[in-house]
Amino acid sequence: MGNNMATHNKYKSFMFFIRKFKVIEPDPPQELEEAFSKFTGGGSHMSVEQLHRFMVEHQGEEHHSLSDSEKVFERILQERKTCQETVKIDHSTEHEITLDELFRFLLHNDFSGPLKTQVHHDMGAPLSHYFIYTGHNSYLKGNQLSSDCSEEPIIEALKRGVRVIELDLWPTCNKDDIKVDHGWTFTNPVSVVKCLECIKEYAFVASPYPVIITIEDHLTTDLRAKFAEMVTQIFGEVLYYPGEECCLTEFPSPESLKNRVIISTKPPRERFQSNQIKDNSNCSILNESESSEEESFGNASPNSSRNEAETEDTNGSDRDEGSISASEYDHKPFLECSPDYKRIITIHNTKLKGCLKDKLRTEGEVRRLSWSENTLEKASESHGADILRFTQKNILRVYPSAMRVKSTNFKPHIGWMYGAQMVAFNMQGHGKSLWLMQGMFRANGGCGYVKKPQILMQKHQFDNEYDPTRIESMKKTLKVKVYMGHGWSSDFSPTHFDKCSPPDFFTKIRIIGMPGDVAKNKTKVIMDNWFPVWNEEFEFCLSVPELAMLMIQVKDKDQGKDDFAGQTCLPVSELKHGFRSVPLYDKKGEKFKSVKLLMRFQFE
């Protein structure tokens, strides 16, 4: 780095001509040279004390101590001793570092990454005050219609820090056991015991904060009792529930539920008669069995509302978890729910009767609602303030439309801007929406819980007080400078991007958040270079930086479709000031071993 040592890449052109391209690693940016000179007083070497001042004053590392700087020095000096470039050591500067060494240090993302790596939000508020990393149909390996169900996607999700796992419970063919399956599809089921045991083993690998299991319940009364027994035996004291007679008026906090597992589903009805069900088959069963996620909005006719509900449910079993299923309607004179099953449910998924405003009432016991993305979009057009008030105390789960057969996802800000805590995503997919989800939960040390911003917790007396599309006052200006990129020559073959020359990289920068904050820009294209240097700065004016995401993509310019070369999404409110090494990820969200951008972030 910074020594202008060059190697050559050779590429074949027109079958037999050989073209040579120099590969020269870049020098430190001019701004870094100026900062180095400022903190060293124009000297050529930096002491521990000067490094400490640089980290605190220039990098904004308020909690960086002198002992932290000493640890950095120890690592840099150790690298110096093992570096093949260093033939002789100048003992007069043995305890000082050079500009090149500081440059290398800043390129190590573990030391100078863009985000804090520790939990730093207040974790003592009720669960409803947090966005929670939530999976949808967590057991599916692929598409929503014909892929296999397995415990493996659950394990992968938990390793990534996902805190909400969804299980769809169905009776087996002989109706004496329980399977996890995506109902009314061609998926292959998996044992519920396997799913529960893997949750127990991997629940707290990535985070100590609570894991919530949302249940879509299609079980008979006997199998509910059996499931309650399974859960209590497998999880033991790890399973949290508030008690049989306890009605929660406020959810417990993530801090109080550390290393605990909790269950969320719709409590089954205590008791009802089978002949009543039969007599009311044209109303009661229809009303319970149809998608209770879908509501009628505006002036839509009853028929059009029903058609929308049917469309939502055509390709899967995503209904209101716990909806009465056909397996319950046997010939017993009475159906009773298992008291043990009801007792283990901590977060009740409860839908009140009445109009939409009534369904969003906030008085009394706290609860959860589960809506499709389409339902939320329709509801927000006329009841945005009601939804926001609801999510300040209660929990709203938003799941993908059943039309997303290929396990794609929707834009998560649809839910976040109204305070929805559980924006449920298909974690087995990939794409920009999932990148945003992964980026959001890099915040707060990657623990899976992100405190909602104050704008979503403010009390609004009137319905028109909160409209995310009309927030106009600008709070902050974010300045983003893209200096350079490196690491592709280590992680990719010389001909991965272009067979006849080195890649032609450019970087795309986007802000995604509240509608008024959305913006995009891009750098120039650097031709034929594995170590592109852009040195370009962009400014973004933000009204709600707490909900803004910085999406970064690097691409190789081609005549046709540009080649993907890496991506990351970063929560703007968590960005650290100064020079930062930003690691890039592949399309599935796996971090590249070496690929990084050197960037600088500033707020004004």
TrEMBL record:
<feature type="region of interest" description="Disordered">
    <location>
        <begin position="288"/>
        <end position="325"/>
    </location>
</feature>
<keyword id="KW-1003">Cell membrane</keyword>
<dbReference type="InterPro" id="IPR017946">
    <property type="entry name" value="PLC-like_Pdiesterase_TIM-brl"/>
</dbReference>
<dbReference type="InterPro" id="IPR001711">
    <property type="entry name" value="PLipase_C_Pinositol-sp_Y"/>
</dbReference>
<dbReference type="GO" id="GO:0051209">
    <property type="term" value="P:release of sequestered calcium ion into cytosol"/>
</dbReference>
<keyword id="KW-0807">Transducer</keyword>
<dbReference type="Pfam" id="PF00387">
    <property type="entry name" value="PI-PLC-Y"/>
</dbReference>
<dbReference type="InterPro" id="IPR011992">
    <property type="entry name" value="EF-hand-dom_pair"/>
</dbReference>
<keyword id="KW-0378">Hydrolase</keyword>
<dbReference type="InterPro" id="IPR035892">
    <property type="entry name" value="C2_domain_sf"/>
</dbReference>
<dbReference type="GO" id="GO:0005886">
    <property type="term" value="C:plasma membrane"/>
</dbReference>
<dbReference type="Pfam" id="PF00388">
    <property type="entry name" value="PI-PLC-X"/>
</dbReference>
<dbReference type="InterPro" id="IPR000909">
    <property type="entry name" value="PLipase_C_PInositol-sp_X_dom"/>
</dbReference>
<keyword id="KW-0472">Membrane</keyword>
<feature type="domain" description="C2">
    <location>
        <begin position="456"/>
        <end position="586"/>
    </location>
</feature>
<keyword id="KW-0443">Lipid metabolism</keyword>
<dbReference type="Pfam" id="PF00168">
    <property type="entry name" value="C2"/>
</dbReference>
<dbReference type="GO" id="GO:0016042">
    <property type="term" value="P:lipid catabolic process"/>
</dbReference>
<keyword id="KW-0442">Lipid degradation</keyword>
<dbReference type="GO" id="GO:0004435">
    <property type="term" value="F:phosphatidylinositol-4,5-bisphosphate phospholipase C activity"/>
</dbReference>
<protein>
    <recommendedName>
        <fullName>Phosphoinositide phospholipase C</fullName>
        <ecNumber>3.1.4.11</ecNumber>
    </recommendedName>
</protein>
<dbReference type="GO" id="GO:0006950">
    <property type="term" value="P:response to stress"/>
</dbReference>
<feature type="domain" description="PI-PLC Y-box">
    <location>
        <begin position="370"/>
        <end position="456"/>
    </location>
</feature>
<feature type="compositionally biased region" description="Basic and acidic residues">
    <location>
        <begin position="316"/>
        <end position="325"/>
    </location>
</feature>
<dbReference type="GO" id="GO:0048015">
    <property type="term" value="P:phosphatidylinositol-mediated signaling"/>
</dbReference>
<dbReference type="InterPro" id="IPR000008">
    <property type="entry name" value="C2_dom"/>
</dbReference>
<dbReference type="InterPro" id="IPR001192">
    <property type="entry name" value="PI-PLC_fam"/>
</dbReference>
